[in-house]
Amino acid sequence: MDFDLFVIGGGSAGVRCARIAAGHGAKVGVAEERFWGGTCVNIGCVPKKLLVQAGEYGAWAEDAAGFGWSIVKGSHDWNKLIAAKDKEITRLEGIYRRLLTGANATIFDARATFIDAHTLDVGGKRVTAKKIVISTGGRPERPPIPGAELGIVSDDAFYLPKMPRKIVICGSGFIAVEFAGIFNALGAETHLVYRQPLPLRGFDQDMREGLAEALAVNGVILHPSSTLGKLEADGDKRILMFGGGETLSADQVFFATGRVPNTAGLGLDNAGVTTKPDGAVVVSAKRQTSQSHIYAIGDVTDHINLTPVALGEGHALADSLFGNNPRELSLKNIPAAVFSTPPVSTVGLTEEEAAAIGPVDVYVSKFTPMRHTLSGRDRKSIMKLVVDQATQKIVGVHMLGEDAPEIVQGLAIAVIMGATKQDFDRTVGIHPTSAEEFVTMRSRTRVAGIARAAE
Fold first, then answer.
1. What domains are there in the chain, each with its CATH number?
2. Known active-site residue 76
3. Tell me: the pLDDT tens digits for 69-119?
4. Measured between alpha carbons, how far is 5 from 3 in angstroms, rounded to an integer?
């Protein structure tokens, strides 16, 4: 056959898998029809964080007065920001290309689809491979309402020709709350519309409540427990109608209501690859599909849709297939961050999840960070530990506040290693920092899960 391994998709999972496999000596081909680096590098986490940081500079300019600086906050140049972002993304995409060519993988700037279980059509060329990896990621999905095509999705938000002065963002997950913070910080009147009572469904309740409070304090106008009706155009304006009859007029309506696996049109039926109703590829723990020589990794499987998970799956699969080192990536205790304003970061179980298993000790601390005692900004940090009562192991760490992702990344190591509350207690804090709060919480806030344990 033409290749030992052919990878469909040049995002985080596919590039890592292809590069490592080629490094192990396999003859590897990889196809990408849009841009190398996938969603994260081009229209996801990397450019999104750059936009978050742009908003932070505006806030810092305002906060400087409390420290004796006379800084006049001028207007923001959206086009200059987007041009700088585009330059950096182009640089990163070039790095991804060089990683593959440097490993002697053959790259195809083309769409790849299945002809049969071992044969692909790659940009009109017939290619065969002993093993095939599907790593085509996910794509944003508009809600099923009339006029949804009049709104934008996250792919579009990074290329807007001008900054909207008023925007309605629909949704309350990672993407929705992050972009709410971005547009609000850059000066837009920002509305956040969502079905749930609180944003970030699935996160710890204290973090959800804290973020809702922080968004409102920042000036984001919240519309909880709202359903979408339809979207209409009025010239350049967009009119969003809610299920309850309320309407909102804005320059843009941004749908961040979900993503789906990007499997449409791949010809998976031709290869006998089974998918779920939403298009997600069904895989085993070893990432095998219903065809034992075809694998799927990353967001296309719709397990834990995070870039580091995709990278880890790609590396583990390449090592297993060609590196004489069979292994799997554990999906337990995966740390995560939401780059909202302020950010949320977490590792392990929420209080609700842990309490459903057995009794837990819960420690919560809410305070004003030192910086804002002088800046005057109304911003709180919330830190939380969830501790299994029987073993005293830390089973959940949660934080809302500045630098939360940087702090929780280190604490994730402790959680994975099985650290106990007593290990935290005997750790000397670094003073003065917010992070030291995690090792100085001595007073238990509450106990949860006793009723379930008694049953």
1. 3-139+260-322 (3.50.50.60), 148-257 (3.50.50.60), 342-454 (3.30.390.30)
2. no
3. 999 999 999 999 999 999 999 999 999 999 999 999 999 999 999 999 999
4. 5
What is the percentage of the chain residues whose pLDDT exceeds 70? Answer: 99
215: left (phi > 0), else alpha (psi -120 to 50), else beta? alpha
* Beta carbons of 307 and 298 less than 8 angstroms apart: no
The answer to whether residue 455 scores a pLDDT higher than 90 is: no
- The pLDDT, as a whole number, for residue 452 is 52
Catalytic residue among 24, 293, 303, 431: 431
380 CA to centre of own chain:
23
Enumerate the β-bridge partners of residue 281.
275
Predicted TM-score (pTM) of the model is 0.95
What is the predicted pLDDT for the residue at 244?
A: 84
DSSP 66-104: GGT---------HHHHHHHHHHHHHHHHHHHHHHHHHTT
60: Cβ contacts below 8 Å, ≥ 6 apart: none
Q: What is the pLDDT of residues 191-244, one digit of tens each?
A: 999 999 999 999 999 999 999 999 999 999 999 999 999 999 999 999 999 988
Report in angstroms the alpha-carbon separations of 380 from 263, 300, 341. 42, 37, 11
DSSP string for 42-68: HHSHHHHHHHHHHHHHHHHHHHGGGGT
C-alpha dihedral, 342 to 347 to 350 to 355, nearest 10°: -150
Q: Are 150 and 232 in contact (CB under 8 A)?
A: yes
Q: What is d(CA 395, CA 393) in angstroms, rounded to the nearest whole number?
A: 6
The alpha carbon of residue 96 and the mean position of all alpha carbons in its chain are separated, in whole angstroms, by 20
How buried is residue 70: exposed, middle or buried, by Cβ count under 10 Å (0-12/13-18/19+)? exposed
What is the DSSP pairing of strand 3-8 with strand 28-31?
A: parallel
Distances (CA, A) of 177 to 40, 137, 182, 215: 17, 21, 9, 8
Token pair for 333: 């205790």
- The end-to-end CA distance of the chain, in Å, is 59
Pairing relationship of beta strands 446-448 and 228-234 according to DSSP bridges: unpaired
Give residue 64's identity as a one-letter amino acid code. Answer: A
Under 8 Å between Cβ of 261 and 281:
yes
- What is the residue-wise DSSP string for 179-229? HHHHHHHTT-EEEEE-SSSSSSTTS-HHHHHHHHHHHHHHT-EEE-S--EE
- Pick the closest to residue 295 from 325, 316, 323, 265 (CA basis): 316
